Prior knowledge:
With 328 residues, chain A is of the alpha/beta class. Helix content of chain A is 37%, strand content 18%. A six-stranded mixed beta sheet of chain A has the order 6-7-8-9-11-10, with helices on both faces. The A-B interface holds A 171-179, 182-183, 185-186, 189-190, 195-196, 199-200, 203-208, 210-212, 214-215, 218-219, 221, 223, 229, 253-255, 257-261, 282 and B 171-179, 182-183, 185-186, 189-190, 195-196, 199-200, 203-208, 210-212, 214-215, 218-219, 221, 223, 229, 253-255, 257-261, 282.
Amino acid sequence: MSDKTSEFSLHPPEAIAQALNQAHRIAVVTHVAPDGDAIGSCLGMVHLLRDMGKDAVPVCQDPVPYAVNWLPGIEDFRTRVPDDVDLVISIDLSSPDRMGTAYDPGTHSSIPLINIDHHVTNTGFGTVNWVEPRAVAACEMVYHLAQAFSYPISPQVATYVLTGLLTDTRGLRTSNVNVRVLRVATHLVELGAPIGKITELTFNRKPLSVIKLWALALQNLHVEPEGIIWTTITDEIRRAAGHEEKNDGGLVSFITSADTVYIGVVFTEEDGRVNVSMRSRPGYDVAQVAFALGGGGHPQAAGATIEGSLEDVQRRVITLLKDSLKQA
Amino acid sequence: MSDKTSEFSLHPPEAIAQALNQAHRIAVVTHVAPDGDAIGSCLGMVHLLRDMGKDAVPVCQDPVPYAVNWLPGIEDFRTRVPDDVDLVISIDLSSPDRMGTAYDPGTHSSIPLINIDHHVTNTGFGTVNWVEPRAVAACEMVYHLAQAFSYPISPQVATYVLTGLLTDTRGLRTSNVNVRVLRVATHLVELGAPIGKITELTFNRKPLSVIKLWALALQNLHVEPEGIIWTTITDEIRRAAGHEEKNDGGLVSFITSADTVYIGVVFTEEDGRVNVSMRSRPGYDVAQVAFALGGGGHPQAAGATIEGSLEDVQRRVITLLKDSLKQA
């Protein structure tokens, strides 16, 4: 193919190599409320650049989440793009606002920006854009970028990149995992990524507060005859469990795994509003309801944060979901 | 190496190929209380043999478990080795008693037996033995056997084999997963195993009764200051949840993922006795306590079934575990 993208590799535009060659001091920024892929791709890119002799710094508005807080080098993160960089790379984000306060258009928009992302909704806001929705993770793009331009991948870079690849595919369990992705994962292990350590620390380790949170939240479990399963995390439950992070530790995925349901929902009280986190089994779509509620997401994982009392929000969302199931 | 086993392949003895060539009607038997690897390796071997023109039948004393009950061909299973076979292959089991009532030494011991297994404790009871503890699953041995003897692997055989490889490694998350295993998994996908479908049906799907079981059992959660987390599944809970299978749907692994504990235990009332299922974080050993209780297992996953009241068994096991942690 003319763009050198084969079935088993994805190829970045040559303009990225040119921009990287010319740059000396580079900020790599990822999105607010970062996940494992955001952190992995950001640190992977930073260390790839440092190994090339560049001065590179990782930037993220928000703290590194628990699942990947064992990665080396997370103490390097800054919360704002330094004003003296000569290149910004945004990674794993679809529009500039997703950088939050880390990127100030007034100050930073005169600096060249390389936009590297795998979201189909990317707005193409960079000086150079590489948007590749076929990539299962931003980390997969970091791998292909290094391969395409023959940048050596150290064991540390391989560790960052494999960690993000595994988190965004829930441990190679999402439906987009194919031979290309498996080859990338295998090569990263060959390059020195310790897959056993990564899976142990990222997937087999939870705060005790999550276990307690599940124990309490599962007491609120409801199963609707229409095929909807839902539960609630109140402020009181979060306090009693001692769980401070704004996530459910995978609870919504767990309840949605019930083989008699189509859709699962966790309602979480959050700063006086209600966070609605939805999952669906293959063939069912929760993104439409999320959009209707002013949120967003993918067909099988979507959500919104809504004003209103817990009871009102629950009634409204469950009604919308029942209607959407009737239409499906 | 002289036995042709390289870093990336495991090689069966030539005597297996000779025995398979001579046989016409073959029973492939796996162990009682089968898991995904038992079923996958058994069906994988059967269909490999059928594709070679042999008459082959899968045998298991007990029913196929929920996690892999979606596999095609499970209706072929017999509960006893037919008397008229001219070859028996035992797969994924370390001693003949693990076949239960499927294999009757009085009737069947005159029939040649090929013993294919990856347990280090295998007693070498076959006419021909291939015991390969480096294999992460019996299914991995079926793959290497087919590769070594150039038996074609159909998409259906690849599906069985990848399913067992994934279940025995908890989705490539165990510490023994290495480049060889990843290459095998990748090749099986190349050969037509639908990895997305396998992970969806095997890992992302549970009976609703498991969700309800967890909701009830987690109300009994105890955390000992010594780093032991434990809970209990009573007969009453199992009845209330409607959960008939004798397993906890992964509950013991879930509670043991708490990052402040070393050991997790689930006590389950079972036919008037108490089943003790234990897990440990890397570096801690529950096998010794399981042996002391008359059970068995691996350092990180072991168990026993004990006579006594729930309270007595709990007290005894927790005391033993606290002692073992003091010594560690």
